[in-house]
Amino acid sequence: MIQDLTPIERENLTNARILYYDFFYGLFVFEMLDNRGEVLKQQLQVISQALIDENLLENIQHLQNEVSTNNTKRFIEEHSKMFALPFGAKQVGMHLSHYYENCVGGDSLLKIKALVKQSDVRVDTSLFKETEEHLGFICGFISYLLKNNQDELAKEVFLLAKDAFFGLCKELQERRDSDLYLDIALILESFLKFESEIIK
Questions:
Q1: Which of 69, 76, 113, 128 has the fewest CB atoms within 10 Å, counting from its CB?
Q2: What is the pLDDT of residue 86?
Q3: What CATH code is carried by the domain that includes residue 72?
């Protein structure tokens, strides 16, 4: 699909993909959430004006209303509830190995580490407490690769992570107490289907 686009169309598409990956990066990496309010408002505004799926408008508006009213306070609370707190409903997995090997730190970590080594990106452990197989990190990594015209490596990373991302969407949708992250899961699922089509 990409090869059929004009240079300007290709650039616009790449910028949109960068925006979406950065949007998910900011929502899935806990350390990013505290100071993310203004960026999130701007991203949601852009996304709302060029929806991948018109059926998602209500979900986008719900997120916009929340960030306008409470900044990222409830995003932080729900992120902890979904991904970190060990009690209550089943914790939602955020690592490749969770979805592919039912563990954390399995072969999938080695595979993504090998791909990361092909770039100049390195995890700053003073700022980010997770490993390279964390799905939030992978969103940020793909965004960085697209910004730096490393499309083939971005494609490899996406193909490695795609099924785990779909698994993440499913687990979030199965949680009865997901609210904001249910909206995010539905937006992510739609984006993944779009992304799968364009990188064939």
A1: 69
A2: 64
A3: 1.10.3480.10
* Structure confidence by residue, pLDDT tens digits, 120-141: 998 877 778 899 999 999 999 9
Residue 20 has pLDDT above 80, yes or no: yes
- The number of domains in the chain is 1
Query: Among residues 165, 172, 171, 173, which one has the least CA distance to residue 196?
Result: 165
Tell me how far apart the alpha carbons of residues 95 and 102 are, in angstroms, rounded to a whole number: 10
Look up the domain containing 143 and give its range.
2-198
pTM for this structure?
Answer: 0.94
Supply the mean pLDDT for the chain: 94
CA separation for the pair 108, 128 (Å, rounded): 19
Which residue's structure tokens are 């996406």? 158
Q: What's the token pair of residue 198?
A: 């364009």
